[in-house]
Amino acid sequence: MERIYLDHAATSPVHPKVAEEMSSFMTNTYGNPSSIHSFGRESRRLLDDARAFIAKSIGAKPNELIFTSGGTEADNLAIIGAVMGNKHKGNHIITTKIEHHAVLHTCQYLEQEGFHVTYLDVNEKGLISLEQLSAELTDQTILVTIMYGNNEIGSIQPIHEIAKILADHPAVFHTDAVQAIGAVQIDVQEMNVDLLSMSAHKINGPKGTGFLYAKQGIRLSPLSFGGEQELKRRAGTENVPGIIGMQKALELADLGREEKAEVYQDYKRTMLSIFNEEGIGYEVNGEMESALPHVLNVYFKGTNVEQLLVNLDLSGVAASSGSACTAGSIDPSHVLLAMFGKESERTKASIRFSFGLGNTIEEIEKAANETARIVKRLTTR
């Protein structure tokens, strides 16, 4: 049976060129970058080169990057680090109801520690209200953390407008860009953010590798202690092979980004066209065009998400109900709950298709036809 992978927003296959780059490093250059001998110096040189390249790719300075084990650690370091580093200024955090759980659960932890958290509402397109954000800001607000692009529905928040609102406010501005990097152009200077999180495995890089951009001058308390790596901001020997792989993945992601985005938009249109031709009841959650190009979230009327996923998997199509961190759970999507309310059937019958390396238009057509066949069978019982 042909298997079709349409869950790239959960994780993506490692690009062959990334694997080749990492393999060459692991077999030939294995020194600890903190060691002073020639083996260590060679690892340090490659690490410094990767740091300079990655920083330049997002408009940052090399010393503004903190390498982490991925997006979750980057989010935790950004949020807890900024809050603990600035708690003398206030105790209020602002986020949204549709953040990744790496952000939401971290904010909930800080609530238990005595901090006050405001969770902004979103509309049916998955977008916050700038007016509500402005109204919730107080002189106690020390951190605003709002994701760039949503991992379940692809909605893109008005990051530039948020930055303008915060321009005259002392609060630190963090954005989780894990799902956006590689899909859209990221320039931290133009965005005017203070902190930005990234994970390599979303862009055909290795798992267990990511980074946090921390603007120079931002107070950030470390979460781990030991050595003096990452300018004393994140202890532990750097994952140099993973960082080398992340560098290559970012380099490849930059090539033909706009062309790939148009291909993925075409995949979306193709799927929906087939759904229309087959006459099944569906609605798109969020927006089609002004969203992350590789994410398509669809509500299929009269079905339920567990049946859909099981039947799709049996037919060889890998899709998702949303965040991979809730895999195995049949709880309604917190993103769709925030958008449509707990009474909406959308929260129980929506599927995320996400596209990436290796997908073809033929696969998309087959997956769409299989989906239509399954939906028809489930709704005619």
3D architecture notes:
Helix 2 runs parallel beside helix 9. The strands form three sheets. The protein has a seven-stranded mixed β-sheet, with helices on both faces. A three-stranded antiparallel β-sheet has the order 9-10-12. Strands 1-11 form a two-stranded parallel ribbon. It is an alpha/beta fold and 381 residues long. The chain has 13 helices and twelve strands. It folds into two domains: 133 residues, Alpha-Beta Complex (Aspartate Aminotransferase, domain 1); 239 residues, Aspartate Aminotransferase, domain 2 (3-Layer(aba) Sandwich). The mean pLDDT is 95. Keywords: Iron, Iron-sulfur, Metal-binding, Pyridoxal phosphate, Transferase. Its EC number is 2.8.1.7. Its cofactor is pyridoxal 5'-phosphate. Belongs to the class-V pyridoxal-phosphate-dependent aminotransferase family. NifS/IscS subfamily.
Summarize the model shown.
It catalyses: (sulfur carrier)-H + L-cysteine = (sulfur carrier)-SH + L-alanine. Helices cover 41% and strands 14% of the residues. It has 381 residues and is an alpha/beta fold.
